[in-house]
Amino acid sequence: MSQRIRLLGIPIDTLTGEEACARMIGFLAGGAQHHVLTPNSEMLVASVRDTDFRRVLQEGDLNIPDSAGLLLMARFTGQKIPERVTGVDTVRQFCSQLSSEHSVFLLGAGEGVAERAADALRAANAQLVVAGTFAGSPSPEDEDEICERIRTSGASVLFVAYGAPAQDMWIARTLKNLPSVSIAMGVGGTFDFLAGKQKRAPKFFQRCGLEWLWRLMREPRRIGRIVTAVIVFPLCVLRYGKNAP
Ligand code: UDP
Known about the structure:
The chain is α/β, with parallel strands linked by helices. Helix content is about 45%, strand content about 15%.
């Protein structure tokens, strides 16, 4: 069990990317089901008002620190996160280590994107078994059909790319009805990056904690999210610190 810190009452695992993958591989050994989340600054702000989402984040089996803002605010509250661990790097690294005993299902993103993301993951690990891919949608009326697809696929790992909080609420609602799934992880825009639809920021931006600025330049419509991450999140931490509101 890794150490956990708390920000706005949400537990965040303080581990490196390698340790996060090792934890996930370990999850596959037991019979239990695990929800992996990738909290970032906007998700923590959303958890202040949305108590259902807050509970889901609080119950996450592994909450990896997916934004530079979390590292900064951890330090501000006298805590330490060793490094930023992104969803896309974790998915890539985890899938590169997965043996053919297990299989992955890629759910979400635009039409055809999950298939291309699966191709990219298979190119890095020829053993990787892709049990299925489906764009689907997070709307409740599609839930039964999507769950049936996943059950039939027998996948042991499920990546859901509907964006937060929709993807994590979807997992929290459905995981108990997907008995083959040992790990379900909300992965945001990961498939877009793996498929080459979006380009990752140059290493310089990533190292300086400025990946958000790169994404803003490429997708100006993200401005509302950036304001939340860069202004509202620090204000929330200033007010509540480690504790839930
Ligand atoms: N998405 C989807 N269905 C929806 C809403 C979103 O498949 O109804 C996908 C969207 O195509 C994208 C992902 O969810 O692949 C969200 O990506 P975003 O960049 O918002 O996530 P981030 O990486 O910032 O967490």
